[in-house]
Design a protein that fits this description.
CATH architecture of the largest domain: Up-down Bundle
CATH topology of the largest domain: Growth Hormone, Chain: A
Distance between the termini: 20 Å
Structural class: mainly alpha
Largest sheet: none
Radius of gyration: 21 Å
Order of helices and strands: HHHHHHHHHHHHH
Number of strands: 0
Strand content: under 5%
């Protein structure tokens, strides 16, 4: 759909939309819960996805141009099944392990999932040699910068979503804030994103990704200090200040992350590469929530505030690790056409 020289702007737009969606979700959820739409209570936050899905489907049919590969692709069912089993084998024990007392079979399932990764890689290489229909083209991982981009995306989104989930839980369940109040203070986040996104789009590069991740870590540290020092006296200005800083970092990092990660991927593999990056984002989101939830409930015996601060340190570690990994990304966002195609 996009020429090589247009990819940076296209992926930047995608990153901005992902950021906007992440922000609008909690706000809309707070409004629906506060005003008890049609007497549904919290159930409305799930039912709202039905009209959203219908509108999205209609817009896709009307706006997105149709594309057709000159070679009919074959679906890699075995590869898809292996990915699903590996992800489930890691995620389920992390989510349910503490509640079920960490039975031995859960550790066996996690070990099996990890051991299945080389098998999945071998299957993908075989499938690629057979007819080029691998779910994840092995050639993508020949680019060190792409692998680094996956790691950075995984870490950033592990930290982002789990941070706001934990903060919302702390404010509502720990401090008794109403849902609408929580949703309104969350608006500081998009303000920060908007303030820095345009600058990031003009100067796409790994330096901004690293700087953005570092700024996000600083925002989390500010929140840790506020939660630890103020305790039950925590008020909206302190939350707004931390969220504003995190938003500033996110505006520098997220809108350009996909473009930077795919900067050295040949044009023919760009579609598959984009899909793998988006998968890493979704896996990071789920993994972050699972890990942070496990840490919080394991440390809740020391008090609500102490447990929240402990989990926020995990979020800060995610962002710091992402910043440390950015030197492995390509120096600039996307190569020109004659450079990208080998």
């Amino acid at each position: 759909m996009f020429e090589p020289h247009e990819r940076a702007r296209a992926f930047a737009a995608l990153g901005a939309v992902l950021s906007a969606g992440s922000v609008s979700g909690p706000l809309l959820g707070g409004l629906l819960t506060e005003y008890n739409l049609a007497g549904l209570g919290w159930r409305a936050i799930f039912l709202i996805n039905v009209p959203v899905g219908v509108v999205t489907f209609w817009l896709a049919r009307r706006v997105v141009p149709g594309t057709r590969s000159p070679h009919r692709p074959r679906l890699d069912l075995v590869g898809a099944l292996l990915v699903g089993l590996i992800a489930s084998g890691v995620m389920y024990p992390l989510v349910q392990g503490r509640e079920d007392g960490w039975p031995g079979w859960m550790f066996a399932v996690m070990a099996g999932a990890v051991l299945a990764v080389p098998g999945f890689a071998a299957h993908q290489r075989w499938r690629h040699r057979l007819d080029g229909s691998a779910l994840v083209p092995p050639a993508l991982f020949a680019h060190r910068s792409f692998v680094a981009g996956l790691v950075v995306a995984l870490l950033v989104f592990s930290g982002v979503t789990s941070f706001f989930l934990m903060l919302t839980y702390h404010l509502q369940s720990g401090l008794g804030w109403p849902p609408l109040h929580v949703a309104l203070v969350t608006l500081a986040w998009p303000v920060g994103i908007i303030a820095t996104t345009r600058f990031a789009l003009r100067r796409t590069g790994r330096g901004l990704v690293g700087a953005g991740a570092a700024v996000m870590a600083a925002g989390v540290l500010l929140m840790i200090i506020s939660v630890t020092v103020l305790g039950a006296e925590l008020s909206w200005p302190h939350v707004v200040a931390a969220e504003l800083v995190i938003g500033l970092g996110m505006g520098l990092c997220v809108p350009i992350l996909a473009a930077v990660a795919l900067g050295e991927v040949p044009t023919g593999d760009a579609g598959a590469g984009s899909g793998v990056v988006n998968t890493a984002i979704q896996l990071g989101t789920a993994l972050g929530i699972a890990v942070v939830g496990m840490i919080f409930f394991s440390s809740a015996g020391g008090g609500f505030g102490a447990a929240t601060a402990t989990t926020l340190w995990c979020n800060a570690a995610f962002f710091c690790a992402a910043a440390l990994a950015t030197p492995l990304l390509p120096g600039r966002g996307v190569r020109e056409p004659d450079q990208a195609v080998r």
